[in-house]
Amino acid sequence: SQAEWEELLTNCSAFLFYGMERFLSHVLLDRLVAMNIPKCHLVIILDLMRSKQSYQRITKSDIHKSCQQTAIESPTETAMLLSLIGVRSVIANQWHATLQENAERLEVLSQNLLSAGRTTGQTVRVLQK
């Protein structure tokens, strides 16, 4: 529910979203922009995965949205909105990915951030290679 999303984002120092389609298609945009979450140091968004069912769901949802509202849900705009509400760092997919690709990204992120103790910048460089 929206209340659960808000509670998780408000009470965390790091947040990981691993899900289908766009992150902002799961959260109410007007409620998100009203939040203030300066305690959240890092948001990792591994979204933009697509299945037949998720594509149908998002297509039905997008019919009721304006072009501007759909454009705000893009990766760059999502990162900007999260930054404006207080998130210090955002790591996110830029393009659609398969479930396997995102699973591999999550493994690399976990190994580098948690096990190796690398910074977010160093970890993103590892992902880019």
* Beta-strand residue fraction: 5-15%
H/E series:
HEHEHHHEHH
What global shape is seen? globular
Question: How many angstroms separate the termini?
Answer: 37 Å
Please state the average pLDDT score. 90
Largest sheet: 3 strands, parallel
Number of DSSP strand runs: 3
List the uncertain runs: none
Rg computed from alpha carbons, rounded to a whole number of angstroms: 15 Å
Helix content: 40-55%
Structural class by secondary-structure content: alpha/beta
Task: Count the domains.
Answer: 1
Spatial order of strands in the largest sheet:
1-2-3
The number of helical runs is 7
Protein name: CFA46 protein
Q: Strands, helices and their partners?
A:
Blueprint: H1 2-10, E1 14-20, H2 29-33, E2 42-49, H3 52-62, H4 67-72, H5 75-84, E3 89-92, H6 99-115, H7 120-128
Parallel strand pairs: 1-2, 2-3
Helix pairs in contact: 6-7
